[in-house]
Amino acid sequence: MDDNTALYAFRKYGDTVLRAAYACCGNYSEAEDITQDVFLALHSKPQNFESDEHMKAWLLRVALNKCKNYKKSFRVSRTDNIDDVNENELKCSFTPKDSEIRENIARLPKKYSSVIFLYYYEGYNVREIAEMLGKKENTVNSLLQRGRKKLKIELEREGYNETDRVY
Fold it and tell me: Which H/E stretch holds residue 163?
């Protein structure tokens, strides 16, 4: 690929990376910053990708790692952001109901929210998620099952029932 790899990747997968970052960190402004950092990293250190799917997987992996670093950062672990009250309205292709569900997913521990997002929102299978996250397939299956159970409990607390079947 040439110097336009980052631009091509941003045009093709920018929204996907933004949604993944938002699903993991739950803060739209931080998700935008993480997305910018992901594409800046690609621009600064160009990669050779076998295919567009390989590029997408790399971008999502970098985004998830940056989200993990963000959640471990001092400003997240030691402070509360008062500006987050109405800021966290995702502006990219989530329906209102989907947005509520996504918010519940974001409140799950990261190990669950990332696999649920990659499985349901990005359409990756367990094997692909395992490769992307550097985990065993059985581990991803377990995380997916436990995450679904936790999500189900949270959704039921908010009034969803079995007929809504979103998990």
Answer: none
User: Pick from 24, 49, 83: which residue ends a domain?
Assistant: 83
3 state SS for 90-141: CCCCCCHHHHHHHHHHHHCCHHHHHHHHHHHHCCCCHHHHHHHHCCCHHHHH
Number of domains into which the chain is organized: 2
Say yes or no: 51 and 103 in one domain: no
pTM for this predicted structure: 0.60
Is residue 111 a part of any domain in this protein?
Answer: yes
For the segment 117-135, what is each residue's pLDDT rounded down to a tens digit?
Answer: 888 888 888 988 888 888 8
Query: Is 79's pLDDT higher than 70?
Result: no
